[in-house]
Automatic annotation (TrEMBL):
Gene3D superfamilies, sorted: membrane protein fhac, membrane protein fhac: a member of the omp85/tpsb transporter family
Region of interest: Disordered: 1-94
Acidic residues composition-biased segments: 45-67, 80-91
Subcellular location: Plastid, Chloroplast outer membrane
Species whose genome carries this gene: Elliptochloris bilobata
Stored Pfam families: Omp85, POTRA
Keyword annotations of the record: Membrane, Plastid, Plastid outer membrane
Composition bias type Low complexity, residue spans: 68-78
Biased composition (Gly residues): 1-29
Descriptive protein name: Bacterial surface antigen (D15) domain-containing protein
Domain POTRA: 285-346
PANTHER family membership: BACTERIAL SURFACE ANTIGEN (D15) DOMAIN-CONTAINING PROTEIN (PTHR12815:SF42), SORTING AND ASSEMBLY MACHINERY SAMM50 PROTEIN FAMILY MEMBER (PTHR12815)
Bacterial surface antigen (D15) domain: residues covered: 407-702
GO cellular component: chloroplast outer membrane
Length: 718
């Protein structure tokens, strides 16, 4: 933004007849002055009144005489020393245009905060490589002098080629000087609302007097630039990109006043766009209020660049748009006002996805036939914008055989109602309701390191959950809900089972193993409260996470259900991703990262086997199967992992060590599954791996038995 001083009158102080904007350069007329004016002849006095600038023209080898080139088309310039005709030297006065090959600045002060040659010339009409007209040159001279920073601005056009078709335009600057600086203060701009106060603290104003005030001599461009650098630098460092000095006052007396514009949001507009990015004529499917309530800036607030980035992130996180852009711009009529356009490209609001997994079943003669093909997989329906208010509903069904669904049929229905307390809710409280039916393999009833045969036990959960979720900050959120579910344990044939079993050396199954449920039937009803607090301050650097993540969750039984269970089950997880070295600028390789992870949990009261903590597995201690170390009521777990970038690709290699212990709590579990299946209760693993995109190829060594295993996993470990 151009530095502007209000102390100058915009008129030159030269003594010659060419005075005005340029300040005059000599008593003789010049060709460029006539180029910058209209094509009709004017007297020298008329040129001073209309153009108010001083411009000169000269050839490569001569200067114009005082009597030369008094008017366009009338005066014949003196004969040059070269053998070419002066008419060829001049710009084409018949058209009032010349080809500008180069633009130069002469006498422009240099220093911190002083506008550079590029900054001053960026907004001019006459640019290198283009034809410049008389009206454009006249406007450029007025613009440069109108900044109030210069006493004189002289323009001169000189041919630089033998064919006299290319010219260089030179601007000569004479700095404006005022009284020595006696005092300094800031004030709102002329268009600020009555009683407005500036955000910049008094300490920064005093800093100007400490750093700039003691400099001797008159106040000139360098002092004003130093003031500008301090004041505007304070705003820019804090993200107030529309905070700047519009002009200075009081330079004649030395008591300088900087008029500061801060840029307040005046209007926010949602602009739906089509596939080509062109604003749509009709309204979008999403109500503008859904977007406006996510924006951190409101009308009347100062616009901050960080608010713009947060708006971009939060609006995109709604899941309703393929593309989101935030465009702030200054109001053309009032520099103190900022108008913000939020441009959004909507996604399809209703979708249906089908993922099929075909299984081949044998026919009557043992051969697979077309009739025996068994279609399985998942079917998902989604509506992202119910009633145009951003409310979302999702339903999914999974089965191994869609034609004959049985006990393996799973479903999940989710409904999310954002801003359930209204758009003014700062915590963005959302209501989440879920109905579910799922089946998972229990990690409690699995063999220990001996590898003895243990028939699997499946845990079916069917029920519902209603929860309120709040977003406290960018990194912190919490939820509190109530869960009511029916839990059924089944064997591998799908029959309900109330006890786990294992195979004896004789080949027979040992009955009366650890109980699977609280009740004797193998089916429980249970109701409990569930609370969760998450702080996730991680971010990605070239594809790898860096930062911190903390999670705390507690389940509190309500004494409702089979056996009237009262229990408390709490877990805490802390993970740190420490960046050891910054990646090379402009590179795509991830930085080296050290991961530190700790996790622990404790449970009290009436707890069934399906709620025990299990140790071992891809998300506990790698190198073991799920639950292979222990099933317990209390545990502590730790891991350390070093991630290093590979030399050629953007992938990573890593090495890790993990350890977990049941803290002796396995004996407190009903039937003590850890002892029954001969598990160690504690153990560690040491390994290394390669991360290739979303795939983790790992080799881990079981520190208890000393055996190594290769694993292929998907996703992140932490």
């Amino acid at each position: 933004m151009a530095l502007t001083g209000g102390g100058g009158s915009g008129r030159g102080g030269g003594n010659s007849g060419g005075g005005g904007a340029g300040g005059g350069a000599g008593g003789g007329s010049n060709v460029v002055a006539e180029l910058a004016e209209t094509s009709e002849k004017k007297t020298e006095a008329e040129e001073e009144e209309e153009l108010g600038s001083d411009e000169e023209y000269e050839t490569d080898d001569e200067e114009e005489g005082e009597e030369g080139a008094a008017a366009a088309g009338d005066a014949k310039p003196a004969q040059a020393e070269d053998d070419f005709d002066d008419d060829d030297d001049m710009p084409d006065l018949s058209t009032g245009q010349f080809f500008c090959e180069e633009v130069r600045a002469i006498g422009l002060p240099v220093g911190p905060g002083v506008p550079t040659e590029e900054e001053l010339f960026a907004g001019l009409n006459c640019q290198p490589g283009f034809v410049c007209s008389r009206s454009e040159l006249s406007a450029d001279l007025r613009q440069l002098l109108g900044s109030g920073l210069f006493q004189n601005v002289d323009g001169r056009v000189t041919p630089i080629s033998k064919d006299k078709k290319k010219f260089v335009l030179e601007f000569t600057f004479s700095e404006m000087l005022w009284q020595p600086m006696k005092g300094f203060r800031v004030a709102p701009g002329k268009t600020a609302r009555a009683g407005a106060k500036l955000l910049i603290p008094q300490e920064e104003v005093e800093r100007v007097m400490r750093e700039v005030g003691p400099e001797p001599g008159p106040t000139g461009l360098k002092k004003l630039a130093a003031i500008k650098a301090i004041v505007e630098g304070w705003y820019q460092k804090r993200g107030y990109v529309f905070g700047y000095i519009s002009h200075f006052e009081g330079m004649e007396t030395g008591d300088i006043v900087a008029r500061v514009v801060e840029g307040r949001v005046n209007k926010v507009q949602v602009v739906p766009v089509d596939e080509e990015g062109v604003p749509r004529v009709n309204a979008g499917e999403v109500s503008p209020n859904v977007i406006l309530r996510e924006l951190p800036f409101k009308e009347g607030q100062l616009y901050n660049a960080e608010d713009g980035r947060k708006a971009l992130r939060d609006v995109f996180a709604l899941g309703l748009f393929d593309n989101v852009q935030v465009f702030p711009k200054q109001n053309q009529r009032d520099e103190a006002k900022v108008e913000v356009d939020v441009m959004v490209k909507e996604r399809p609001m209703r979708t249906a996805d089908l993922e099929c997994e075909w299984q081949v079943a044998p026919g009557d003669k043992g051969r697979p036939t077309l009739v025996s093909l068994v279609p399985g997989g998942s079917l998902t329906f989604e509506h992202r914008n119910i009633a145009r208010q951003g409310r979302q509903a999702t339903a999914s069904v999974t089965a191994q055989n869609f034609l004959q669904p049985a006990d393996d049929l799973g479903f999940r229905v989710d409904y999310k109602h954002p801003y359930v307390w209204g758009a003014s809710d700062r915590n963005k409280t959302a209501l989440n309701a879920t109905a579910f039916n799922s089946r998972k393999l229990s990690g409690v009833f699995t063999p220990g390191p001996s590898g003895e045969e243990v028939p699997p036990v499946f845990v079916d959960r069917a029920g519902g959950k209603v929860a309120l979720q709040q977003q406290h900050s960018r990194n912190s959120r919490s939820s509190l809900g109530v869960v009511l579910e029916q839990v059924t344990t089944r064997d591998e044939s799908g029959q309900i089972t109330a006890h786990g079993v294992k195979q004896l050396p004789s080949g027979m199954l040992a009955p009366n193993g650890p109980p699977t449920t609280l009740g004797p039937s193998g089916r429980d009803w249970v109701a409990f409260l569930q609370g969760n607090v998450t702080r996730d301050a991680t971010y990605f650097v070239n594809g790898t996470p860096v930062g911190a993540r903390d999670i705390f969750q507690v389940d509190q039984g309500l004494g409702v259900g089979t056996g009237f269970p009262l229990f408390n089950r709490a877990t805490a997880s802390l993970t740190r991703f420490l960046q050891l070295r910054a990646p090379p600028p402009g590179g795509r390789k991830p930085p080296p990262v050290l991961v530190l992870h700790a996790r622990g949990g404790h449970a009290l009261g009436d707890l069934a086997s399906y709620d025990y903590f299990t140790l071992g597995g891809p998300y506990s201690v790698r190198g073991y199967n799920v639950g292979e170390l222990a099933a317990c009521r209390s545990f502590a777990e730790g891991a350390i992992e070093l991630r290093l970038p590979l030399p050629v690709t953007s992938n990573q290699a890593y090495a890790f060590y993990e350890y977990a212990t049941d803290l002796g709590s396995s004996r407190l579990c009903r039937g003590n599954p850890t002892e029954y299946f001969r598990r160690a209760g504690a153990g560690g693993s040491l390994g290394a791996g390669l991360k290739l995109g979303a795939v983790r190829l790992e080799y881990a060594t079981d520190r208890n038995a000393g055996k190594g295993t290769v694993f292929v996993r998907f996703g992140e470990r932490f």
